[in-house]
């Protein structure tokens, strides 16, 4: 396997853009990433695209083909990857693998989305053999209910309070206000968060990320190419994809087996473990992490799952300010999904952009001092997860 | 004349011993499934031997939440919408299963508390018939 570097990243700011197509959003992100890398469109050997579930111009998740037509049809191969909210991370992993394996020297990874209004619906299937159909018809249990159930369990196990949950949203916006690409840049107080509508008890509106429109792109290339382009490339130390385990503790349909111990979000833990292994890094070597905070709950559970801190310690790290960019375990120095809103397929690539800016020391007021090794993670429908470790 | 109607046929029934869920269990690895399955999906099981199994009625509440907004279709509910509680229950026979909680006040629920399987109405169809599903009630 060859060494692979990230040499250019770019984004379209997140928000709601009624008069711009998803291809328009991707155009902005791709153009910025190419300029950041100092290369032209003709230098791209292949595209790994996170395929849209909602708004691909061709309607079948062929985002990458739209991007290539828009940038100029050079005849390069396009790989459209589908993995729900993990698609951006999946596309990055495929692009990484193609360069590491020697198939191509320079690959563009791109994800972009224009989201429908409201919470993301899961299955559109109207069949009694479909587990999600049965769960919705017989119980009435949409996606956010999963987060609420996991969160309530944590409250019972560790004594997590509603104020602590609100504190995570407060912290996210203290950081996100410094990020020009973020959609929600105002600060909230704990009282503001606790005053927002209860959505899926115990989770409130400001404790769950809304949906946004946005796009992100990254140019990755072989070590030889990277050194010719820049004196300070950011290296891909690990990139992994995983799916959930059979004994995962949260039934995704109607039921599962009672597991022996805590085995939730098993796909995320597997992907992170594999990526850290590839990087030859211990969890304690991670300088900062961008994790998928669809809900504040994940910011408590994930670092503990992955060994970044001890079980039950996450609330204390938050209270002590250790999860701020200047703390001992900075979490989501970008502001995270809570400040951006989720543009599903863009998220894994957006995280790569943030890691790259942090490792280059270009993150301004949200810079993690001395950032040398960063971890990013996504989690998507279908039991998909991805992780990437970047280093200076 | 209205008739209580299962919201989906074949998943549950009332018996002399109380409500039961109809699923499967693998005779080789004893993993339970709900709804029914044709094959064992346990990656550590090398001899799928699936047979019919019934689950319930007693278990413990693993966690719960309240659905404060109407879940999108194909969920069913009567107008005006009234928030309801949801639970994940560990049945004594080894099945972890989701379901609505049949309680008026969710504050009465407790993680780890004993619950029992019941059949109760989710909503009504256009002809006024009750649509029945499985639920859990504090025991
Ligand atoms: Zn078996």
**What is the SS-derived class of chain A?**
alpha/beta
Number of strands of chain A: 12
Strand content of chain A: 15-25%
**SSE order of chain B in H/E notation?**
EEEEEEEEEE
Give start-end ranges of low-pLDDT stretches of chain A: none
Distance between the termini of chain A: 19 Å
Number of helices of chain A: 13
CATH topology of chain A: Peroxisomal Thiolase, Chain A, domain 1
The figure for the number of domains of chain B is 1
Trace the largest sheet of chain B across and list its strands.
6-7-8-10-9
Explain the overall architecture.
The complex is a heterodimer of chains A (392) and B (139). Chain A has a single domain, classed as Thiolase/Chalcone synthase (Peroxisomal Thiolase, Chain A, domain 1). Chain A has 392 residues and is an alpha/beta fold. Chain A contains 13 helices and twelve strands. In chain A, the strands form two sheets. Chain A has a nine-stranded mixed β-sheet, with helices on both faces. A two-stranded antiparallel ribbon of chain A has the order 5-6. The mean pLDDT of chain A is 94. Chain A is globular. Chain B has one domain. The mean pLDDT of chain B is 96. Chain B has no helices and ten strands. By secondary structure, chain B is mainly beta. The interface between A and B is large, with 40 and 48 residues. Zinc ion is lined by residues 26, 28-29, 31, 40, 42, 45, 48 of chain B.
Question: Which properties best describe this structure?
Answer:
heterodimer, A: 392 residues, alpha/beta, Peroxisomal Thiolase, Chain A, domain 1, nine-stranded mixed beta sheet, two-stranded antiparallel sheet, 12 strands, 20% strand, globular, B: 139 residues, five-stranded mixed beta barrel, four-stranded antiparallel beta sheet, 0% helix
Would you kindly provide a brief summary of this structure?
Chain A is α/β, with parallel strands linked by helices and about 400 residues long.
